[in-house]
Amino acid sequence: MARSGSAFTLSALARLGFTRLSAGSAALDELSSLIGLEREVLVSGASAADPDAAVAGMLHVARRDAVALGRIMRDDESRAIVWRVFGASLGLADFFLRHPSELEVLGEVGALVPNATTLTERMLHAVGAEQGFAAAGDESAWVALRVAYRRSIAEIAAIDLTTTDPASRIAAVSAALADAAGAALEAALTIARTRVSGVISREEVALTQLAVIGMGKAGARELNYVSDVDVIFVGGTADEARLEESRAIDIATKLAREMMRALSAAEIEPPLWEVDANLRPEGKQGALVRSLGSHLAYYDRWAKSWEFQALLKARPLAGDPELGQAYIEAVQPKIWSSAARENFVDSVQRMRERVTEHIDPEDAGYQIKLGAGGLRDIEFTVQLLQLVHGLTDPSIRTRGTLESLDALVAGGYIGRDDAATFAADYRMLRLLEHRLQLRELSRTHLMPRTPDGLRVLARATGLAEDGAGIWSLWDRVRREVREIHTRLFYRPLLSAVAELPEDQRTMTTEHARDRLAAIGFRDPAGALRHIGALTTGISRKVTIQRHLIPVMVSWFADGSDPDYALLAFRRISERLGDSSWFLRMLRDSSGAAESLTRLLSSSRYIGELMEWIPESVAWLDSADLLRPRGEAKLYEEARAIQTRHSSVASALKAVRALRRRELLRTAMGAVLGVLTIEELATALTAITDATIQAGLRAVRREVVSAEDDALEFAVIGMGRFGGAELGFGSDADILYVYDANGIDPERAQALATKLVSGLRDHLTDHRVPLDLDADLRPEGRQGPLVRSIGAYAEYYRRWSVSWEAQALLRARGVAGSEPLIEKFTALADTIRYPEETDQQGLREIKRIKARVEGERLPQGADPHRHLKLGPGTLSDVEWLVQLIQLQHAHQVPALRTTSTLGALQASVDAELIPAEDAELLREAWLLSSRLRSAMTLLTGKTSDILPEDRRELDAIGRLLGYPDRSATAVEEDFSGVTRRARRVFEHLFYG
């Protein structure tokens, strides 16, 4: 049996959401008594955002007109609607308090919001309008209009509040609110005509045309419950012979002013909203009403970019429909060509930033509309995408935010996931905004600051269980919106599309061949074939590529080899197939598309590797992904490869793939300026180290049995490899050494030879060659490929010549047995850092250097263009530094380094070389190294001779950061730097 009494009553009220239980109970008792309904019936089906406010509002109405409220409350469905409306809107409760008879509208609520025609008929009927004139022009007509409008708003709100999924109805509700505003403006115009005809002849008023153009949310049919209604007034005459245009504009101005008063002037029924005409030409300083011709003249000569963005949502809202439509048709071409204006994208981006900057800091964290992650972020993003791509695509020339998102998705300008997130977040933010404004029928865009306010908002929206939940949801959405906005709103592709010349926005076959040739393509016919292959079809991938290609072709043309770049892009695109991330990243990522075009048009080395490793495009989304992974991580991955593969062939195939991948990563980082030349050398050395280490482990597992496991074997890096100074295309100079360690010497030699053979065979890579060059071994090419540590010691003790001691200055253990590497290093130290200087040996080194300059240059080569052996280039710097090391390293420990630049700095620190001379040498060494790598990156081939072809030199210059057409500057810089370095070399080397 149900309990009765106060305890039950108060607990029941608490379950209904009441917070002031005693006051609520007393109010219900009084309300029950006034309207003659049992208390249990009164609260049955009660569901309200704020039941305390609901019952208080109903009680106020009942005290004034109990019959009107009682009549509506007796119907179960109507009673539930009353609870919802009064619980969500104090403003509507006040309206019904002023006009209790209007409560009947809550009993007439249907499933669908009223349409524009119905709303207009109602409001025209309220003012007794006939043939464009209201029955009266005094304040009583204003009141009648305002009451009719608020009655319609109450109906819309009732439908909105009783729907099970209000967020899904945002578009319909917002459209109905905009239609209601348009209907109110139409009725206000009829009142204005009647009022003005009291001082001007009715005939002249009738001949005056006035079109009210809805702007902003009113124009887009996405209005709030309470918002300024942005408009532009266009005036004219219906008959120039009977009413001159200038006179018509004067009358239209009077009509516009009276319209605005009818809606926003003080009167017994409060104003509806402000009619804001500040978006008109010249803003507040401009004429309130202009002719169509005057508008167009202004837009042609004086309008700023933001004014065209504002016109994006313009539509005829009230008044003369033909004049309104003529205005829209006339401004449309101007809207959709505005993005081609200079710095258009930057100006829109800056305008959004100014909006954020001007928010009161105390409100910034609560702003639903203007703040970071608010509605404006979504709206500005959508509008900018529309304006830029609408230059050439009529399908996205839409007004509403949600319909525009759909159009942008269909056109491939925004990803489905981003659009779906934007749309869902937009609906949620609008729902929050609607409920907040409905509360007091006031213009607000701020989240509540009190727990009670948040609790009511959570109940009103149905989006969360409590205040903490609604705040958490708002915070998540705000961060989500801001992330997408920042990524899309500032995507470089937007500025690039907007800045394309008109004849390059679409790649039609007509005139395309000539245009491609004009911008730098050597084979325009071939380029057209590639473009056709990329843009023909109906798939989403093709649609997106169709948008990307005009801009990317322009960027390709800025590079040194646009023909190859376009071909490589086609191959990469085909390799990736329908991978959605690829084109989405190019379209949406900050700079990925431009970076890809720069890479492909600058470097065949990169392009050829990217064709085989197309997933590398994903690295362009983050500079961190273009940085070297580091020796430790490479070592770890290489070890993991060995454990996953049972055979040497499969393991080393994976190791070669690892090497290619990391070489590509390093090359991309170098071309895009992520790496310095020193970081480049370190990265290339680490990649080569890891490759040889992994190769040796795999080959040893196959060659050396358990019974021979005592055999020690090591690889020693020499030359630039030993010095950790590799560039692209550098050989890996090495020595092989073993220690039998108790194994039969002949067997040890045989096993070591097999290890060398296996290493060389399995690490051979025809795609990106790895040349393991052992020519620096004792006796050179005539000597055995691999020696025991004892044989090396014996050789260096008895027969070593000066150049071999010099070569050992760069010796560094790379792979294999650590104890053996330590033994070899100790042996090398006795040779390369002698206690006493061998003067005869130093003279021999100087003699060999002179001979090398004459004998090792390729036949016919210009020595002044040779990057390695030419005067003032790599060999001059390295031989000088090595000569100093041989002389002084025993006394100066800092000189005991395999690094050329490290030893050069140590020489300065020890006062063996003047600092200014060392800087000239360092500059020459770095420039020669950079040029060698740039030549390999450009052509995919290794060369030591600076080319004479001006186009190739220009391309090399671009890779080094020179401006376009810098072939002469590259030559002059190289010549000057090496000439100065040569003078230093000759003075210090030959004395």
- First-to-last CA distance: 117 Å
Low-confidence stretches: 1-8
Largest sheet: 5 strands, mixed
Average residue-wise pLDDT: 91
Instruction: List how many beta strands DSSP finds.
Output: 10
Question: Radius of gyration over alpha carbons?
Answer: 41 Å
The percentage helix is 55-70%
Q: Structural class, please?
A: mainly alpha
Proportion of strand residues: 5-15%
Mass-distribution shape? elongated
DSSP summary: helix tally:
43
Task: Provide an overview of this structure.
There is one protein chain. With 991 residues, the chain is mainly alpha-helical. The protein is 62% helix and 5% strand. It is built from 43 helices and ten strands. The strands form two sheets. Strands 1, 2, 3, 4 and 5 form a five-stranded mixed sheet that branches. Helix 12 (245-264) links the parallel strand 2 and strand 3 (275-276). The radius of gyration is 41 Å and the shape is elongated. Mean pLDDT is 91; it is low at 1-8.
Brief rundown of the structure:
The chain is built from 43 helices and ten strands. Helix 4 packs antiparallel against helix 5 and helix 17 packs across helix 18.
